[in-house]
Amino acid sequence: MNQETINDLNRAIKTLERKNRWLTLIVLCLFAIGVVSFLNQTVFETDSSDSPSQDKIIRVRGIVVVDENGTERVWIGAPVPEPLILGKRFPRGGRMSGIILFDEEGNERSGYCTSDGYPNVLFTLDSIGRQHVLFMSEPQGDTTLRLWNGGNSFKLDIGEEESSLKLSSGGKVLFEVPPPSPDEKGAIK
Amino acid sequence: MRGINLGIGILAFILIGLIVPVLIPGQSQSQENSIAVWRGHDGAVTDVAFLPGGDSVASCSLDGTVRLWDTDSGRMKRILYSCLDEIFALAVSQDGARIVTTEYKGKVGIHSAEGKSSRHLAEFLGWSVDVILSPDSQKAAVWSMDGDIWIFELETGEHIHTLRGRKNKWGMALAWSPDGSRLAAGRLAISIWDVNSGNQVQTLEGHRGFIRDLTFSTEGQRLASACMDKTVCVWDVETGKALYTLKPQGLVIYLKSGPVTNPIELPMTAVAFSPDGRRLATGGADRVVRLWEAATGKLLREFKGHRMSITAVAFSNNGARLVSSSLDHTIRVWAVE
Lengths: 189, 337
Description:
Chain A is an alpha+beta fold. Chain A has 2 domains: about 45 residues; about 130 residues. Chain A is built from 2 helices and 12 strands, in the order H-E-E-E-E-E-E-E-E-E-E-E-E-H.
């Protein structure tokens, strides 16, 4: 190997070393930018109210879940809508807020709500157009569970002073505790 | 060679799959005896009625539209009216020129059947879910939430008369007698009013739920009521007695294998007398349109095909056809004869 070749190799090595330094610098800069971007998205942006985040709280008056036919199946709202029964909508009689479930035809079938005005919390199960289960707690603590269908019913009331239980079938009382007073018995007959 | 055989096999399998369903209709198809299914509404169809002459059918829907359909072709002629609110009921004027509707929270709309104009009556203490027209189509009646029945002059929109009901006791079914003298209003009982005097002249009691639909027979002697208590009742208007009560049974569920009928009773929502008064059509949440002999209550035919509850039934003027609307977004046409 002659001197000229050695000199050429030295020049080439120096050129490569220079390029390597630049490349190293560029890679470091890109890495730094990446780190800054990552930190920017994961740490700093969580404090910004405008950015999307998994922790963000949605504040809305209502959310509606619809099925593939566009029928509303779940309503979470404050208030919830007026009930729809077999294609006709009726006034609810009082403002309620909470969750309402609808069947595939859009009929209201269940609710888990609080009522405005008198602050009861209640859970209901309905057939088409008629309520059959009510589980309710009143603000002072009185709690009721009622199940009924026509003349058949079950009623459990839990109050601060006393509790009561009543089971009826075909409009007649089968079981009742505490027993009704004589006046109430007369009223039943 | 093996690959070719496999390819032929797959092709044959696909062809058999395509041809067999055409040659051998499924059970669900053979059960569907409607002569036409009209699709177009984007929501539950809440009411339907023939226009005089029978060439057209009007329908309204929770999708906020009133549509006019060609009876023979089933083609939608036009959207008469469109709004953001749900539309619950309609009534067609005697000359077929106007269609009156009731919308969410009691807005009453009057629409030209030509689709040229729409206007609304002045809002009343609202939320009526039914609207009816007098036989001469000069007046419209709605049942207000305050319990009163408000009668409007259709031409001017002026509130001309009030039938005083029980306070805050309102219902969802109204019917005007063919001679225009009486108006029936159904809640838990049916109240019959003398329209001229404004007095309640008759109360028909027997239902154990909210009455959903009411209709007078053509001669005005009978009144039929469809009720949420799962029954349809036919009444003698003069005596106030129930002539008979129908309690249909059988919810139709459509599975992949075909329709299955569950022997349960469900609310009845729709009732109509045929123009000659000899037949009665009913519909309900059981998804079946039924045809009955009006004099006896004998079941004549069952029409199956709707996938969801039926909301209204109506006969054509000659009584040969029946239309029904449903929460399944469709209108179906049935041959009565």
